Amino acid sequence: MKYQDVLIRDNSFRIGDSKFTLTKQGTAQIKTVMTNPATGAQSLETAYAKQG
Q1: Listed residue (15, 46, 45) closest to 29, CA to CA
Q2: Which residue has the higher pLDDT, 4 or 41?
Q3: In terms of pLDDT, which residue wins out, 2 or 25?
Q4: How far is residue 28's CA from residue 51's CA, in Å, rounded to a whole number?
Q5: Got the DSSP string for 1-52?
Q6: Mind listing the pLDDT tens digit for each residue in 8-19?
Q7: pTM
Q8: How confident is the model at residue 6 (pLDDT cuts 50, 70, 90)?
Q9: Distance from C-alpha of 42 to C-alpha of 44, rounded to nearest angstrom
Q10: Pick from 4, 27, 26: nearest CA to 18
Q11: How many angstroms from the chain centroid is the CA of residue 44?
Q12: What is the C-alpha separation between 14 and 25, in angstroms, rounded?
């Protein structure tokens, strides 16, 4: 298990290359910067998580 301090501000927090934002009650948007190891090109991946 690893622990990291996070700053929670404006309904969002960042861990590493990912940012979690509460968009509405029970739903969060997760954005992660992905780096291609072969080319170094970066892309932004977006996903949503819903509380079940």
Answers
A1: 46
A2: 41
A3: 25
A4: 9
A5: --------BTTEEEETTEEEEEEETTEEEEEEEEE-TTT--EEEEEEEEE--
A6: 888 899 888 899
A7: 0.73
A8: confident
A9: 7
A10: 4
A11: 10
A12: 19
- Decide: 9 and 33 in contact? Cβ < 8 Å: no
Q: How far apart are CA 3 and CA 12, in angstroms?
A: 18
Q: Which long-range contacts (CB under 8 A, 24 or more apart) does 29-33 make?
A: none
Q: Both tokens of residue 28?
A: 């969060």
- Domain regions of the chain by residue span: 12-50
43 burial (CB, 10 Å; 0-12 / 13-18 / 19+) is: exposed
